């Protein structure tokens, strides 16, 4: 490098050093200018003789001096700086200046303006009233930029709950006179960001489709307009994690873990992809089941006999908890308090079993001091309190408290219910706190149905499940079709006389206007009843029924003679059977009855299936015009198979009407409609072949076999399929005299097969049936297609 190059390089280096020096100087000047103006004397501390405050309009001098923390007397530079920071951080002033002038200190402030009005622009999905509740800034209060930004974030969170992740909120002010401003939140709502896919990683025992049914969160589907669970809500993912844990744990996967639940937003921010990473682990079954007593003098044999759990069945915490409750109840029946059942589990990884030793131990003597209920603005305390099997003064049982909390949530009256226990006034006392949040309990429903025979039908229903906050149910229903009109009123008191005694009352009025028969009917009645448990899964109902029936508008029929098909139609009189029924006029029936039901599908030991058994017996003859005995029976068995995606169901049903005095009437007899698919309501059973009138029968028996399964469509669509096969018949009349051999009331087996399409819609669960009658009589009336509101037994 020559001498000229070295000189040039030195000059450039000198310029660079000079520029850095200038920059540092500017920075220091700016920093000094931004701080309170201090003189050298203040750096060592001086005594102030006067503090002057300027610029304040609404904030008085005393408040400013308190915020500054300074007054007359000795003051250091550090105290002066603290005074400046205190005023600046108070949120009351837009500008602050602390300027020492000799022995005087001048504090100049510029107050934030007063908010004149708050408005929202660009919002359509959320109304102004909702947004006003989300903001902390208020009219006639000082404007705070930090608070306005926090309000904007709160509004944006409200939109995120609705799945609008792209929503933006910008607070702006419009200056007015007298140091006032209008605060305006400019909102861009953006499009709803829906969950486009719910996926799972690590699941082997159950498919993605089955696990999606467990989650509270749903994918966006065909009914996204009505389903509001298809937007991403982070707090809902925590609920979904717990739902997955409960699902797997109840099926024996004791080591199940949710490793991660991640949500990925699409680049265009128009969709979210949620993925759950899980570790299933090994499925365990119950191994050796024993009962052990660690209480001196207490024999474990009766407790061992009370257990209802089978070795080799899939492990479930619910089964263990149910058996613990059974053993604790047995101890109470024996007069033993503070007996605790501890399930001691021995794990056998080699054969995948869990040995359970139900151990009877002496628990701590702790009593329930009181039960406090809060948050119930409509529901009476007694409605919540009766969900507890424990009352004040009883021994404290944590398991019973947990079950009581579940019963409170199951009522459906509350959006949230929290139950916890805390120490009471003494060491052996606890206080149970119940905190609930009310939610609407009434519903107004509209429905539409269609049947080939009945035509288009409309229904309207008004139901209040917590009438007057007493936990009572009041329902009004009205439905009409082409040839029928039905109305009813229902009232249910679930805790009559403060006990587990359900009081029911039902009143009904039904009319038929048969288009393809020579008679119409009218039926009106009332039926009060009481229902109570007689076992863990069994209930008994006792009822009284009073009803009045009448046949109306007897007409002549137009029919073809089967023997001479070429002859024109002829007018035929109503069958003598119907004529005799109509001649009896109004018939009053007064009687009592009972029904026993046993249902293990919900509270049984098998989470994937169960049975429903129902038997009824009614006697009519307590006054009135009818003396008869009616018996009915129903048996339903369900089981989920193939990873719980297919439900198999078998239904057996039958009924018998026996007249003690006289003949049965068409208004009391059985018809085949709804019993065997593929046939119209009066399409099978005893019939007058001359008039083509369906007469009904005194006996019926059917067997129905069904299989419900997914169709591969997203679960959110609510569409699934089914197959069915029905077998049965309706037969037997008391008297066919005068019918000239045209009435057939014999037993003829009918059968039908078909497919079903189920669709859960906002108007109700619809069922489309496509059926084909396989075995039938020549005079039976088929029904190939039917659309109805789906029902459950």
Automatic annotation (TrEMBL):
UniProt record, GO biological process: Gram-negative-bacterium-type cell outer membrane assembly; protein insertion into membrane
Chain ranges of the POTRA domain: 46-112, 113-190, 366-439
Keyword Membrane: yes
Subcellular location field: Cell outer membrane; Membrane
Record keywords: Cell outer membrane, Membrane, Repeat, Signal, Transmembrane, Transmembrane beta strand
A GO cellular-component term linked to this record: cell outer membrane
Keyword check for Chaperone: no
Stored InterPro entries: Bac_surfAg_D15 (IPR000184), BamA/TamA_POTRA (IPR010827), D15-like (IPR039910), OM_assembly_BamA (IPR023707), POTRA (IPR034746)
Primary localization: membrane
Summary of subunit composition and partner proteins: Part of the Bam complex.
Protein's job: Part of the outer membrane protein assembly complex, which is involved in assembly and insertion of beta-barrel proteins into the outer membrane.
Family under the similarity heading: Belongs to the BamA family.
Name of the protein described by the UniProt record: Outer membrane protein assembly factor BamA
């Amino acid at each position: 490098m020559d001498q000229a190059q070295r000189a040039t390089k030195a000059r450039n280096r000198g310029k660079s050093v000079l520029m850095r020096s200038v920059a540092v100087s500017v920075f220091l000047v700016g920093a000094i200018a931004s701080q309170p103006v201090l003189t050298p004397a203040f750096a060592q501390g001086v005594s102030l003789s006067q503090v002057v405050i300027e610029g304040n309009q609404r904030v008085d001098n005393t408040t400013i001096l308190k915020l500054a923390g300074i007054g007359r007397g000795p003051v250091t530079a550090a105290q002066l700086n603290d005074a400046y920071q205190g005023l600046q951080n108070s949120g009351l002033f837009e500008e602050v200046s602390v300027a020492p002038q000799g022995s005087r200190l001048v504090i100049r402030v510029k107050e934030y303006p007063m908010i004149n009005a708050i408005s929202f622009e660009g919002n359509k999905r959320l109304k102004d009233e909702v947004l006003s509740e989300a903001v902390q800034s208020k009219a006639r209060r000082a404007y705070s930029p930090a608070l306005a930004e926090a309000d904007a974030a709160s509004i944006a969170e409200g939109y995120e709950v609705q799945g609008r992740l792209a929503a933006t909120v910008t607070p702006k002010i419009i200056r007015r006179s007298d140091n006032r401003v209008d605060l305006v939140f400019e909102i861009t709502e953006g499009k709803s960001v829906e969950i486009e896919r719910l996926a799972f990683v690590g699941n082997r025992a159950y498919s993605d489709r089955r696990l999606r049914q467990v989650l509270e969160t749903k994918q966006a589907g065909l009914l996204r307009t009505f389903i509001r669970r298809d937007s991403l809500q982070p707090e809902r993912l925590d609920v979904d994690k717990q739902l997955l844990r409960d699902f797997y744990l109840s099926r024996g996967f004791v080591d199940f873990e949710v490793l991660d639940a991640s949500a990925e937003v699409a680049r265009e921010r128009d969709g979210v992809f949620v993925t759950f990473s899980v570790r299933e682990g090994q499925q365990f079954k119950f191994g050796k089941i024993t009962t052990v007593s660690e209480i001196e003098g207490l024999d474990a044999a009766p407790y061992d006999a009370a257990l209802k759990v089978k070795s080799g069945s899939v492990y479930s915490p619910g089964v263990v908890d149910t058996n613990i409750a059974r053993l604790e109840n047995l101890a109470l029946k024996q007069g033993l308090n503070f007996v605790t059942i501890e399930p001691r589990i021995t794990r056998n990884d080699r054969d995948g079993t869990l040995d359970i030793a139900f151990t009877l131990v002496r628990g701590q003597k702790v009593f329930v001091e009181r039960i406090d209920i809060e948050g119930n603005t409509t529901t009476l305390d007694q409605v919540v309190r009766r969900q507890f099997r424990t009352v004040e003064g009883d021994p404290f049982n944590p398991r019973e408290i947990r079950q009581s909390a579940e019963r409170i949530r199951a009522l459906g009256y509350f959006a949230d219910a929290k139950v916890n226990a805390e120490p009471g006034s003494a060491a052996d006392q606890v206080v149970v706190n119940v905190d609930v949040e009310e939610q609407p309990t009434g519903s107004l429903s509209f429905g539409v149905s269609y049947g080939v025979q009945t035509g288009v039908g409309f229904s309207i229903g008004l139901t209040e499940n917590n009438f007057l906050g007493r936990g009572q149910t009041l329902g009004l229903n009205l439905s009409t079709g082409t040839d029928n009109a039905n109305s009813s009123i229902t009232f249910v008191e679930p805790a009559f006389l403060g006990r587990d005694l359900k009081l029911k009352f039902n009143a009904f009025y039904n009319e038929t206007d048969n288009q393809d028969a020579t008679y119409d009917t009218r039926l009106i009645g009332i039926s009060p009843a009481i229902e109570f448990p007689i076992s863990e899964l069994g209930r008994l109902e006792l009822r009284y029924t009073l009803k009045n029936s009448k046949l109306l508008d007897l007409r002549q029929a137009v029919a073809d003679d089967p023997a001479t098909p070429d002859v024109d139609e002829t007018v035929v009189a109503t069958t003598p059977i119907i004529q005799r029924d109509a001649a009896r006029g109004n018939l009053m029936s007064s009687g009592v009855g009972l029904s026993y039901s046993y249902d293990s599908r919900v509270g049984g030991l098998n989470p994937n299936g169960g049975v429903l058994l129902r038997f009824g017996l009614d006697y009519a003859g307590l006054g009135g015009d009818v003396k008869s005995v009616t018996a009915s029976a129903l048996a339903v068995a369900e089981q989920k198979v193939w990873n719980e995606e297919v439900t198999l169901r078998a239904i057996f049903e039958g009924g018998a009407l026996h007249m003690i005095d006289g003949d049965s009437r068409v208004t009391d007899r059985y018809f085949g409609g709804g019993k065997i698919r593929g046939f119209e309501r009066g399409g099978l059973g005893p019939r007058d072949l001359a008039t083509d009138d369906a007469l009904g029968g005194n006996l019926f028996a059917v067997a129905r076999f069904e299989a419900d399964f997914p169709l591969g469509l997203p679960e959110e669509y609510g569409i699934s399929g089914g197959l069915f096969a029905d077998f049965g018949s309706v037969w037997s009349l008391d008297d066919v005299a005068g019918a000239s051999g045209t009435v057939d009331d014999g037993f003829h087996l009918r059968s039908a097969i078909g497919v079903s399409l189920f669709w859960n819609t906002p108007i109700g669960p619809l069922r489309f049936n496509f059926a084909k009658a396989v075995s039938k009589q020549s005079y039976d009336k088929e029904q190939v297609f039917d659309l109805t509101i789906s029902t459950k037994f």
